[in-house]
């Protein structure tokens, strides 16, 4: 890809790309390379973004510079960028729907390094604006394992194995991915379930795990209380919340990527093996494994147990 501004045609849309040689990471990883990453993962990433309202984190001056969350489609976006309007607490938000490689590249052009999604999809028959609430139907659940100070990936990997085992007891099929930062996220596809019920279920599971592993888990968001423990963050399942999408870059020191992994890799990490991936790792990894999170895209009848 050229190092200077150019226009490209993708999916029948003409996109003007600028500042392609601008470094967006301290190691010199450029905007052109950010775009190349999203093109490289487009086939596996787009299904995980389908009909999900995408919140972006934009880093105009690179990953170590100021950043801001953006929910509405960027001002001046082309007419072909589809949106979905949500009524969130009487605030109307026109989220972009990232449903093509062209839309992914457009987000990269806007220096949106991070793409975040909720646990629900926009209903195909919804009348806009779509009102979010406790009864918004999630099609997956997320256990976000956030390590406190003094914990390592060994601790987080062990925590993920414990969480996955507990979810499997209830008939769920857990998958896991790195966050691209320090944590891991355990996910499972579920039959459509109200977001508040998902939170209630996971809070109960979290309380069980705290009782059985008091020196490993906690549920409180109080950062001062988290030293040496792993937070089970269940609030990511609220309809108004979102979390990093599979295959998204992170705005960190390196161009790290939120990457689906195998449980064997998690077990190896619990024994001390590294479990971090950068953009350079993804093409060979996808060639070897394909989309390790593909099962999350399959409609499921797995229901949460009665309370």
Report what the structure shows:
By secondary structure, this protein is of the alpha+beta class. It folds into 2 domains: 6-131, Alpha-Beta Complex (DNA primase, PRIM domain); 137-297, 2-Layer Sandwich (Alpha-Beta Plaits), CATH 3.30.70. Helix content is 26%, strand content 24%. It has helices at residues 31-49, 101-109, 153-169, 195-212, 263-270, 282-289; strands at 6-10, 13-17, 55-58, 68-70, 83-88, 91-96, 112-117, 130-131, 137-147, 175-178, 184-194, 217-218, 230-233, 243-244, 260-261. The strands form 4 sheets. Strands 12-13-9-11-10-15 form a 6-stranded mixed β-sheet. A 4-stranded antiparallel β-sheet has the order 4-3-7-14. Helix 1 (31-49) crosses helix 2 (101-109) and helix 3 crosses helix 5 (263-270).
């Amino acid at each position: 890809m050229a190092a200077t501004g150019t226009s490209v045609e993708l999916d029948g849309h003409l996109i003007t790309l600028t500042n392609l040689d601008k470094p967006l990471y301290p190691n010199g990883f450029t905007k052109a390379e950010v775009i190349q990453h999203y093109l490289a993962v487009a086939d596996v990433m787009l299904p995980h973004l389908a009909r999900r309202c995408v919140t972006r984190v934009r880093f105009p001056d690179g990953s170590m510079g100021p950043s801001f969350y953006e929910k509405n489609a960027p001002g001046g976006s082309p007419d072909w960028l589809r949106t979905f309007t949500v009524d969130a607490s009487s605030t109307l938000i026109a989220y972009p729907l990232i449903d093509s490689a062209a839309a992914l590249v457009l987000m990269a052009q806007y220096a949106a390094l991070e793409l975040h999604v909720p646990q629900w999809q926009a209903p195909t028959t919804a009348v806009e604006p779509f009102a979010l609430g406790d009864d918004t139907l999630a099609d997956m659940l997320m256990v976000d394992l956030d390590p406190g100070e003094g914990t390592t990936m060994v601790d987080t990997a062990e925590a993920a194995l414990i969480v996955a085992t507990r979810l499997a007891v209830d008939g769920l099929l857990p998958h896991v991915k790195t966050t691209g930062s320090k944590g891991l996220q355990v996910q499972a596809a579920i039959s459509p379930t109200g977001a508040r019920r998902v939170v209630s279920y996971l809070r109960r599971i979290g309380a069980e795990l705290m009782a059985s592993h008091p020196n490993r888990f906690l549920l409180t968001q109080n950062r001062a209380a988290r030293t040496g423990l792993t937070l089970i963050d269940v609030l990511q399942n609220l309809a108004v919340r979102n979390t990093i999408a599979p295959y998204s870059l992170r705005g960190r020191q390196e161009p790290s990527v939120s990457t689906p992994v195998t449980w064997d890799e998690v077990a190896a990490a619990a024994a001390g093996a590294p479990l971090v991936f950068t953009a350079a790792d993804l093409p060979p990894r996808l060639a070897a494994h394909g989309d390790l999170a593909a099962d999350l895209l399959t409609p499921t009848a797995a229901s949460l147990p009665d309370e």
